[in-house]
UniProtKB/TrEMBL annotation:
The lineage of its organism: Bacteria, Bacillati, Bacillota, Bacilli, Bacillales. This is Family 43 glycosylhydrolase. The chain holds residues 1 to 301 of 442 of the full protein. GO terms for biological process: xylan catabolic process. One of its GO terms (molecular function) is hydrolase activity, hydrolyzing O-glycosyl compounds. It comes from the Bacteria. Belongs to the glycosyl hydrolase 43 family. The record marks 151 as: Important for catalytic activity, responsible for pKa modulation of the active site Glu and correct orientation of both the proton donor and substrate. The active site is at residues 49, 199. Residues 1-21 are annotated as: Disordered. Keywords: Carbohydrate metabolism, Glycosidase, Hydrolase, Polysaccharide degradation, Xylan degradation. It comes from Paenibacillus agri. The keyword Methyltransferase does not apply. Coiled coil: none annotated.
Length: 301
């Protein structure tokens, strides 16, 4: 199915765009990646309609595009029914990420392992040799999880070493992954230097500088903040807020370069008016000479 943001292509000329970008189903927490087939992919949470709550989020879809304008829904890639170790009642498939290393795509997602959901988060892993299908359950990252620890993000660095980040509440943790991309080399450590961290960690690299973006704690109106470091595991230097509230109580985003332009992927609730029926949005993201991120201008229609 094709859906999409027909206006983004000409936004700079017209100063208008079309957001949300994904309109065929409700989606949130977009993790965008450019793989070596030249396409850009969005791995997102899927808010289920009619809304009941986040317990109903029980499956993931992937979207792909060749031009940032036309988006193809590649279909469902994993549901809570596919997870052997998960909460018996299913649901709670929250913000995911995907990484590629040595011919394998690794799909990471937070999911509880028992009925006491917020105390039993684990970071599940599914793998495939394709970016948007064929994922099979590989269990979870040993030693990770527990109360409110969600939202995995994985950075594969230029030297092919890989780092995982996650967190929630007020703590953000990071650590290096082993070659298997499932276990950790030396465990996790707290990411130092972030201000007002809440959740939604995302790490990317630009011009040799690491950026860690995240959602803050502003009540019912989370914003996106960021910090930078010369090292993938910090310590981090706090740099500021770059996305103001979207009108949704949660915020969650990813930053990626595609064909020479940087973009911010995030979500709002513009279609439904409900915080648990969210929609993925896309806007241009620009940097200043000193590497700081310019405040993103949200295009609303
Ligand atoms: O989508 C479920 C949760 O809401 C995510 O894991 C958080 O980051 C927030 O967006």
């Amino acid at each position: 199915m094709t859906t999409g943001n027909q206006g983004l292509q000409t936004k700079r000329q017209k100063t208008t765009s079309q957001n949300p970008a994904i309109t065929s189903i409700y989606t949130a927490d977009p993790s965008a990646h450019v793989w070596n087939d030249g396409k850009i992919y969005i791995y997102a949470s899927h808010d289920m309609d009619p809304a009941r709550g986040c317990d109903l989020m029980d499956r993931y879809h992937v979207f792909s595009s060749e031009d940032m304008v036309h988006w193809v829904d590649e279909g469902e890639i994993l549901s809570s029914d596919d997870v052997s170790w998960g909460r018996p009642e299913g649901g709670f498939m929250w913000a995911p990420d995907c990484a590629y290393k040595n011919g394998t795509y690794y799909f990471y997602y937070p999911h509880p392992s028992d009925s006491n959901w917020n105390d039993s988060w684990k970071i599940g892993v599914a793998t495939s040799d394709k970016p948007a299908s064929g994922f099979t359950d590989q269990g979870y990252v040993p030693g990770l999880g527990g109360f409110a620890l969600i939202d995995p993000c994985v950075l594969v660095d230029d030297d092919n070493s890989a780092y995982m980040y996650y967190g929630g509440g007020s703590v953000c943790l990071g650590g290096e992954l082993n070659e298997d991309m499932i276990s950790l080399k030396d465990g996790m450590k707290e990411m130092e230097g972030l201000e007002d961290f809440h959740e939604a960690a995302w790490v990317f690299k630009r011009n040799g500088l690491y950026y860690l973006t995240y959602a803050d704690n502003l009540e019912d109106n989370n914003r996106m903040r960021y910090a930078t470091s010369e090292s993938p595991l910090g310590p981090w230097t706090y740099r500021g807020i770059f996305l103001e509230p979207t009108g949704c109580s949660t915020t969650h985003g990813s930053v990626v370069e595609f064909k020479g332009q940087w973009y911010l992927f995030y979500h709002n609730q513009a279609i439904s008016g409900q915080g648990n029926l969210r929609s993925v949005c896309i806007d241009y993201l620009d940097f200043n000479e000193d590497g700081s991120i310019k405040t993103v201008v949200q295009t609303l229609e």
